[in-house]
């Protein structure tokens, strides 16, 4: 496999920013479908795919989210074209016989709820990151957030308890006027140990 070109690397990482404001340009349902069709290929352990996505596209849907948002996240979230709730399916293992046919892994997770939770949280977070990278590669900008009351959000959107919120991502076409100066990253020597 050949490395990606500089344009793709810039889109996904080097020039990408977390956006606080978005233009009025809409995000179409076709774009959201293309987003899922791309992100779903990101790897997860045993192909478990525990993440679930709720795309809030209307003001009515975003108003349902508003009571759960931290005050500093309300205005930017209500103004974003789309808000993605990246959630976890607590019963992801029910799908494993289809997704992971190598052997029946479902009983392992059914018998060990702590393992199921840890696996779902780790891999669901990976899938949320794949969503952001895929969105950037499709020309969208992202504003990920953890500033919300998960209990309120789950009560509103997932009252049966099967799914639970992990984090939120505002999606759209970014307006750079809302960006803070880009923060520095740790240097290789600070973050990496070679053994």
TrEMBL record:
InterPro entries: Nitroreductase, Nitroreductase-like, Nitroreductase_HadB/RutE, RutE-like. Its EC number is 1.-.-.-. It comes from the Bacteria. Its cofactor is FMN. The keyword GTP-binding does not apply. Residues 15-173 form the Nitroreductase domain. GO terms for molecular function: oxidoreductase activity. Keywords: Flavoprotein, FMN, NAD, NADP, Oxidoreductase. The keyword DNA-binding does not apply. Pfam families: Nitroreductase. Belongs to the nitroreductase family. HadB/RutE subfamily. This is Putative NADH dehydrogenase/NAD(P)H nitroreductase EOE66_04420. It comes from Rubrivivax rivuli.
């Amino acid at each position: 496999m050949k490395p990606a070109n500089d344009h793709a690397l810039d889109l996904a990482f080097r020039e990408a920013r977390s956006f606080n404001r978005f233009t009025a340009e809409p995000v179409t349902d076709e774009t959201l479908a293309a987003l899922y069709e791309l992100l779903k290929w990101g790897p997860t352990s045993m192909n478990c795919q525990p993440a679930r996505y709720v795309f809030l596209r209307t003001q009515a849907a975003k108003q349902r989210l508003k009571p759960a948002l931290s005050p500093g996240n309300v205005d930017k979230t209500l103004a974003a074209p789309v808000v993605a709730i990246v959630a976890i399916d607590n019963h992801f293992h029910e799908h494993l016989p289809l997704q992971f046919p190598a052997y029946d892994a479902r009983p392992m997770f059914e018998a060990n709820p702590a393992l199921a939770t840890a696996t779902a949280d780790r891999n669901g977070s990976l899938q949320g990151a794949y969503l952001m990278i895929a969105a950037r590669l499709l020309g969208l900008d992202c504003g990920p957030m953890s500033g919300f009351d998960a209990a309120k959000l789950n009560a509103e959107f997932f009252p049966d308890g099967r799914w639970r919120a992990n984090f939120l991502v505002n999606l759209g076409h970014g307006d750079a006027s809302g960006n803070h100066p880009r923060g520095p990253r740790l240097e290789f020597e600070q973050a990496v140990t070679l053994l």
